Amino acid sequence: MSFGKKSKKTASAPAVPEQAEQSAQSAQPEVPAPVVVERVPLIAGNWKMNLDHLQAIALVQKLSWSLKDVKHDYGTVEVAVFPPFTDLRSVQTLLAADRLALRLGAQDVSPNAPGAFTGDVAASFLSKLGADYVIVGHSERRQGHGEDDATVAAKARAAAAAGIAPLICVGETAEDRAASGAAAVPLAQLDVALSSLEAGAEFVVAYEPVWAIGSGEPASPEQAQEVIGELRARVRQSHGDDAAARTRLLYGGSVTSQNVAAFLRQPDIDGALVGGASLDADEFSRIVQFKKHVIAG
Predict the structure, then answer these.
(1) Of the N and C termini of the chain, which has fewer Cβ atoms inside 10 Å?
(2) Which residues are catalytic?
(3) Is 48 labelled a binding residue?
(4) Active site located where (predicted)?
(5) What three-state secondary structure class fits 227?
């Protein structure tokens, strides 16, 4: 993380009358230099409820080999996989044993500490498995499991407390978009999640318009940038300039190797949350290599 340098004040001789105005102007308080941060793009593969632990091992091995063949630099584009709970230990063991640079994430987490919560998985358990990220607020959890904004916020808080970065999903349905515009619902969802996170907490935000997920019809890059730009402004308002500068905001919703570069050209889009395409090692590898297809405009 680098910051702009401020100029230093030096002592000077008393000003003559005609220099007084210039001296008064130079005595004005300095304007803080803007925070300058180079955000490393993140390509995250959400496997959803697909692949058993043996299939998971095979996919990670093939993906790793594919990226090794093209000499992928994980320092310039971070890559994370989000297997089902039953696959996490197998994938974590493979990553550690083969010293693979892929990052590990989970698809959900309990808002509760360990205890009498049948079927839940505590954030502390995921931390012990070496999980770097956990998805919270995905539309499939919001719609299919009735999770509201308060539940999502509690999950984000639990993850952060365990040292795991919550990947907070927000997005509007087609009906939301028609009624109140593209940004209103995602901003409201993000507000509640941000209210649960302390200053300095690490988190990622993924904008996934619900109407685009799995439809084969993604938002346009310009539509995505418009909403994500507003989401970054809300992070700045809530957590300050530094958080807004360093927080990565992703686009998700029918991402493929054919369209990812257009999204990543946008100034506020720092990566992609990839669904179905992440189950194909070759296709996901091509998505990770998006920089080869980005042409400066």
Answers:
(1) C
(2) 138, 208
(3) yes
(4) 138 (electrophile), 208 (proton acceptor)
(5) helix
